[in-house]
Amino acid sequence: MQLLHRLACEPPFRILVRSVLQYLPVSVQQRALWEISPRPHYLLGVLAAAKQALRERVGQISVIEFGVAGGNGLVALQSEAEAVEQATSVKIRVFGFDMGASGLPPFIGDYHDQPDAWQPGDFPMDEECLRARLAPRTTPILGNMRDTVSEFFGTYTTSTYRVRLCRRRPLLFEPRLASDLHRSWQHHAAARAGPL
Questions:
Q1: Which pTM was predicted?
Q2: What's the mean pLDDT in 151-161?
C-alpha cells in the first residue's frame, strides 16, 4: 500500500490522482497533501499554523495577508481558514492590510520601490465590493502600513491574545507579503520585531 501511495505522489501520476480527488469529498489534510485548492500555499500554511496551535494548546490564531488589492487572495484565505477551523477546532481570524481605493502610496524616490515596475495608485481596491464578499471572521485594515501595522499588533495582540499565550505573540501565518513597496516591508518588519 505504501508503494502505491508513493507511486501516486510522483509525476505524472500525481497530476492524474489530484484531478480525480478534486471531485471527491476529501479532508483538509488530504487537500493540503494533494494541493487541491485555488491557492495551495494558503491552505498548507493555515493548516500548519493550526496544527502548531494545537500542539501549544492555543485555541485561536490569526492569519494575515499584506497587500489585498482586488481581494481574491483574501477571500481564498478566509475560505481556507474556515475549512481548517472546522477540521481542527482552532478558531481563526483573518486580516488583510491594504491602502484601499488609493492603491499604492507615493514612492520615496529610490530604486527599492521599483518605480520601473509600479506606479503610485496601482492596485486600487473596490472596498464596497470586497466587503460584500467577506465573512465576519475577516477584517480588512485599510491605511498606510506605517500606521496600521503597529496599531494592529498593539490592539489585537494585547487585548485579545497575549494573556492566553503566556505573554507571547499570537501564532500568525502570513501567506503573502504582497506589499510591493520596500518602505512598506520595512514598516511590517519593524512592527513584528517590536516589544512583547
A1: 0.77
A2: 61
Ramachandran class of 173: left when φ > 0, alpha when ψ lies in -120 to 50, beta otherwise: beta
Angle at 150 between CA 144 and CA 155, to 5 degrees: 115
Does 160 map to a domain? Answer: yes
Distance of CA 18 to the CA centre of its chain: 24
- pLDDT of 173-191, one tens digit each? 555 544 555 555 555 555 5
- Tell whether 41 is covered by a domain: no
CATH of the domain at 127: 3.40.50
Residue among 144, 139, 140, 156 nearest 188 (CA): 144
Cβ-in-10-Å burial (0-12, 13-18, 19+) of 60 comes to middle
- Whether residue 54 contacts residue 91, with contact meaning beta carbons closer than 8 Å, is answered with no
Separation between Cα atoms, residue 169 and residue 165, nearest integer Å: 7
The range of the structural domain enclosing residue 169 comes to 59-192
